[in-house]
Amino acid sequence: MAKRVSLLRTGVLLVVFIVLFNIKCYAYPPAYPVPALTGNQALDIANIAASQIGYAESDGTVYGAWWNGVTNWGHDYTNEGWCAMFACWCADQAGAGLYVAYDKNGAMPGRLFDYLKANGAAYDTSMTGTPMTGDFIFFGNDRVQHVAIVTGFDEATRVATLVGGNQKNGAVSASACSYVPDSIWGYQRVLGFGRPRYTTGADTEPPVISDIQVAADSAGYTVTCRVTDNDAVSQVRFPTWTTYGDQDDLLKDWGTNEKALGTTSNGITSFRVDRSDHNNELGTYVTDIYAYDRFGNVSTGRVIYTFEQTASVTITAQPQDREAEENETAVFSVGAEGPVASYQWQYKIAGTTRWRNSTSATSGYNTAELHVVAAPSRDGYQYRCKITDENGKTVTSDAAVLTVTERTVRITMQPQDAEAAVGETARFTVAAE
Length: 433
Fold this sequence. Notes:
This protein has helices at 2-22, 41-51, 62-71, 83-93, 98-101, 109-119; strands at residues 122-124, 136-140, 144-154, 159-167, 171-178, 184-185, 188-195, 208-217, 220-228, 233-237, 240-242, 263-265, 268-274, 283-293, 298-307, 314-317, 322-325, 329-333, 335-337, 340-348, 356-357, 369-373, 382-389, 394-396, 400-405, 411-413, 431-432. By secondary structure, the protein is α+β, with helices and mostly antiparallel strands.
């Protein structure tokens, strides 16, 4: 019995020795104290990152050691590259939780980049977006190599301030970068930013639009305004159309198209409206203003500007309503005096409000006389002519209506008198279509 106890003790000692032999002890410094949370996770992440400035790796980092407990992979990250682990640690300290900013693969900047692309609240690689406080900004050359936390952004200069781990001799440090296409940060390219889906601190107060001004010339006009927000303005968009043509010149994707995006400098946002982008039309233009903050709150404003129509061409004869049987040709004409440069006939489908340009499929679409085949489907169509003078100014005729009637039988040849002798046959002939 004593022998068995001795062997058991020997085995226990052997196990303890093996376990102790494989344990690696580190002397990394502890994290610096973090500031009290405000409840705004985006702001808290930036504040926490800034509180760690000056922390330097020494026999590992506290952020890598923390990551060991997050992943539970059995791999030791204490001495691994730690820029992504630092960003994730800041998110965790802010109460964002693992599900907000990253998954277990977030120890690699590239994995974090991909995660935010698929799951983030915002993502931009065009270098034209607006990074916000608390966003994760990425850098690299042939791949994603580094991540830092945005602590501020100057829209006028397009410069982002940031704090990152494992920078400048393995320390947490502050820096800045230009957020424009082809920007270089150190020896790496700026690749874009991702925004975690923060769950607290999202305000409901929209931006404020004020001091709307319009400066016009013969080619268009420029809208300027001041937009402020209690947090930060993310973007201001200016969808524009003319009342002529029922918004046919409005950008259908104005909510994402960069052509509808304003530019901001020294606190003033501006947007240029060119008539050439709107078929050089005269008359009334409408520009709506949509100002967004990073929480999706939006404010709106509106500008209405009219370009007076003073064409040197005068219409002397308006198109008249026409009635035609099925498949006959209806002719609409317009008379004009002055230096006419071109005619453009337009049509509007019955029951709609949009005018469309007639094309070469309709004879005379670009002359003073339009020939329209009276197909049954065209019953109720309206036709008008847009006449342009030699200076590019236009005048538009009244509209005329096409009425298509059912085709009736028509006699094309009447019977003729006939003379015949008694007993002979007299023939009478009629033709119809």
